[in-house]
Each structure stands twice: as C-alpha cells, then as structure tokens.
Amino acid sequence: MEEFKSGFVSIIGRTNVGKSTLINSLVGEKVAIIANKTQTTRTAIRAIVNRPNSQIVFIDTPGIHKPKTKLGDTMIETAFGTISEVDVILFMIEATSDEIGRGDTKILEKLKEANKKVILLINKIDLVKKEQIAKIIDLYSKAYHFEAIIPISAIKEKQVEIILQEVEKLLKVGPAYYDVDEYTDQTGRQLVEETIREKALKLLQDEIPHGIYVEVQKMKLSRTKNKEPIYNIEVVIYCLRESHKGIIIGKNGEMLKKIGSYAREDLEKMLDTKINLKTWVKVRKDWQSEDSILKKFKFN
Fold first, then answer.
1. Which H helix or E strand runs over 258?
2. Bridge partners of 40?
3. Residue 54 CB contacts under 8 Å (≥ 6 apart), including other chains
4. Which are the contacts of 254, defined by CB distance < 8 A and separation ≥ 6?
5. Pair type for strands 274-283 and 45-51
6. What pLDDT digit, counting tens, does each position of 122-132 carry?
7. Of 84, 83, 41, which is closest to residue 65 (Cα–Cα)?
8. Distance CA 8, CA 48 (A)
9. What is the mean pLDDT of residues 265-280?
10. How far, in Å, CA of 124 to CA of 179, rounded?
11. 3-class DSSP state of 225
C-alpha cells in the first residue's frame, strides 16, 4: 500500500499573474478572491487539497510588486516569508514576457537563497505562439534548476491533475494536518470580509479598492420566524478619503446595495445559510499604517 504524504506548497509570482485563479482550480472551491486588478490578494490564504494518498496545503500569497505603503511592505514580507516555511514552491510567470523582469528576478534570488524544490508554471500560453513558450522555458531553465516546468492556460482539469501529481512526487511521507472535509483555514469572518472586498474590487473605480479595508463587526447565527438558520452580519468598509466614501455608497446608496447584494449571494452559497447583511462605510485615513490592522496580513 502506498504511504500517505503531506506538505505545504506556496504559490508565488508577480501581481495579476493568475495565482488566485489557480488555487481555486486546484481546490475545486472558491477560497481566494479574484478580480482583474493588481494586488487583489493581501494575505497568505491556505487551501487544502485532499487526495487518496496525500494532503496538500497550498498557500496563496500576495503578488510581488513595488510597495508604496506600509501595507505594501507587509504584503511583500508575507509573500517572501512563506518561502522558508514550505516544502515545495509553485513559481508562476506569464508566457507573454520576453525577458526575466525585475519582479521575477527578485523572486528567483529569494528562491536561490532558500534552496527549495520549485515547479515553474508558465501561465497564459494561449496568448502566445509555441516558439515563445520554448523561448521562455529556455530562459528560465538557465536561471534556476526547476523540478518541473508546466505550461498552462485558463486552468483546465487535465492541467490541474498534472500539477497535483508533480507536487505529490516532491512531498515526504507525513500526516494529514486538516480534517478531510476542510478546504481552507479561513474563518467565516475572513470569508465575509474577503467576499465583500472582491465585489468592491470588481465594481469600483481603479484607485479606490486598494484603499479599502473590510471588517466584520458582528456575525451571529440565529433563527428566522420559520426556525431556519440565518447569519446576522454587520460590516464596516473603511476607506481613505471622504470623496471615496461617496463613491462607495453611490447615488441613493445604489453602489453599496449592489456590493452587499452580490456578496450576500456568494456567501449564502459558501456558508450554506441565509444571510442578513448590513454594511456601513467609514473614513479611516491611516489604516494602511496601523500596526493593529497590518498584523492581520502577516504570515503565521
């Protein structure tokens, strides 16, 4: 009988390279929020894949970027902080680049320092010709000794299985760290906060979402008049400026209603319970520098 394996795998790469889409595909559940904006992921999110002979704990990390705030510094620290703590690393790049850019060079330097087992994932291969993929493989093969190189596009089931098989090969014999029915270590509160932030990222103008911080003030499970379970949730969306507050609320409160409505729809599926969601918007000018908030984004 095959021995049971387990281990931790970090997914690292620049912003908007497709890490969160990948992690959701690997797990088969939505654990990481996705938006067509840079710096969507702010913290290290664990996602659990249970297989017949293994348990793989994937860690989605913030994208590597040039930080402009204390929050940005914390995000970079979190991403690189996972490298020394895991067994295997998935390094994700885009097939569209002709050279190893500054961000990817910095990642390669950190990988060399850590001397970890690394699988290179070349994403968005549907956007380039085969010659370009061969060029990228050659370029990165000379820069680092990868255990495997896997070209992928919008993640298909077949590609997911190949990635999982390659990761499994590199894991050591070990125990399951989580129950078999768990697929993330995020709490219900974190799922609520991240889902609301995702809707804001998708619906709001470019400059506003990165200045948003969502905090659940109350989350209580109770019963309706018909004795059905219902979560009563109260949330505050903090933003950096008074002008942003007006945009988030929208004319006659329409934008805030839309954010809340879309979030409620997703959360009722995730938590399998009816939800009564109340949202407020407040200005908190310096939250990106507040240590009490930033510690929530640190890897532990």
1. helix 254-271
2. none
3. 4, 5, 6, 168, 171
4. none
5. unpaired
6. 998 988 999 99
7. 41
8. 9
9. 90
10. 34
11. coil
> Taking Cα atoms as reference points, which of 268, 271, 282, 267 lies closest to residue 33?
267
Q: For 187-208, what is the mean pLDDT?
A: 80
- Residues 82-110 pLDDT 10s: 777 889 999 999 998 888 988 899 889 88
pLDDT of residue 35: 42
Burial class, 29, CB count within 10 angstroms (exposed 0-12 / middle 13-18 / buried 19+)? middle
Nearest to 248 by CA among 221, 209, 274: 209
Name the residue among 238, 231, 184 with its Cα closest to residue 215.
Answer: 238
Structure tokens at 86: 């895991």
- Determine the straight-line distance between the first and last CA of the chain, rounded to whole angstroms: 35
Q: State if pTM tops 0.85.
A: no
How many residues are there in the chain?
300
Q: Tell me which residue has tokens 């109260």.
A: 234
Integer angstrom CA distances of residue 114 from 111, 117, 170, 214, 297: 5, 9, 16, 34, 22
Rounded to whole angstroms, the Cα distance separating 87 from 7 reads 6
Q: Which domains does the chain carry?
A: 5-173 (3.40.50.300), 188-297 (3.30.300.20)
At residue 238, the 3 state secondary structure works out as strand
Rounded percentage of the chain residues whose pLDDT exceeds 70: 81
Give the residue ranges of DSSP H helices in 17-146: 19-27, 70-81, 102-114, 130-143
Rounded distance between C-alpha atoms, residue 45 and residue 48, angstroms: 10
236 pairs with which residues across the strands? 215, 280
Check if the beta carbon of residue 255 is closer than 8 Å to that of residue 249.
yes
pLDDT attached to residue 31: 57
